[in-house]
Amino acid sequence: QIERLIEATRIVASSAGSDVIKGLTQTPKSLPPWYFYDDRGSELFEQICELPEYYLTRTETSILQQYAGEIAKITGACELVELGSGSSTKTRILLNAYQQLGYPLRYLPIDVSAGILESSARQLLADYPSLQVHALAGTYELALAQLLPTQLSSRMICFIGSTLGNLQPQQCDVFFSQITNALQVGEYFLLGIDLQKPKHILSPAYNDRQGVTAAFNINMLDHLNRRFEGNFDTTQFEHWAFYNQTEHQIEMHLRSLRSQTVQLKSLNLTVNFAASETILTEVSRKFDLNTIQQQLTAWGLIPRHVWTDANQWFGLLLCQL
Ligand code: AVI
């Protein structure tokens, strides 16, 4: 009998707040973007994906719909590992393609939010009778280090949704060495990236009219309050996001509306904010297809196929170790 149960493995998802202490005691202040994704933050992110201004999800979905069959034919049967799986909605397009070719389905979603991980894994098990799921709750770094050798003939690590853009360039060397360590020669890496485009399209995607992105940004403070016994007054911070054209990145901040002091009791941390002082909560880098292909090659992942949409707004790259 094939084992199909979720063997949800909970990995310690943080370095017990040392990253928060570091970020809030340096100048300028910053926080790691993975603190967006408590269960509420993951819900808000799902809402962002549906916003009219947030073209990323729609565009990547259309590329996947067009090319998933081709991807499955190229890779053959393989175990799908997904970093930042969230609701796994787009992954279903890939699972359908592998299923249509009669391949065995084995899926290892990795996400910091255990709630969304578990609920989406259960839904997938109900919808795909032959699917095996092994869900890993934790940061990419910790989860990748826990991966066992694949149980199928091959493996593909999927990193879609342009989450690569949320890593700072200096984090990429370590990240890609973890990716290549988790793959055998000949195995695959599927990367979805948002491409450079005019500011008038990028800026509204992070400043939506309904204020969902603002709520997503502010929710990080609620998450820190819960997690570290904090007393951030979320009414005293505002969302601020803009496109930095020189760096080709959206920069998302929380701006203090007045001078104030915040405590995070369980971290033994007191933080002073000047009026208008900001915390950088996320960069969202926008890529150039030629440059990223060169970088991937330097990291040991050879781009074999590159797909994009009619507007060239989003790129999907199938790479091989
Ligand atoms: C998950 N990540 C790719 C999103 C992005 O567009 O950078 C996170 C996000 N931040 C604000 N809106 C969406």
Automatic annotation (TrEMBL):
EC number of this enzyme: 2.1.1.44
Query: Per its record, what are the GO molecular function terms?
Result: L-histidine N(alpha)-methyltransferase activity
**This protein's UniProt keywords:** Methyltransferase, Transferase
The protein's matches in Gene3D superfamilies, at most eight in alphabetical order, are given as:
Vaccinia Virus protein VP39 (3.40.50.150)
What high-level taxonomic lineage is stated for the organism? Bacteria, Bacillati, Cyanobacteriota, Cyanophyceae, Nostocales
Q: Which PANTHER family match?
A: ERGOTHIONEINE BIOSYNTHESIS PROTEIN 1
GO biological process terms, semicolon-separated = methylation
- What name is this protein filed under? L-histidine N(Alpha)-methyltransferase
All residue ranges annotated as the Histidine-specific methyltransferase SAM-dependent domain in the record: 18-320
Task: Say which species the protein is native to.
Answer: Halotia branconii CENA392
Uppermost EC category: transferase
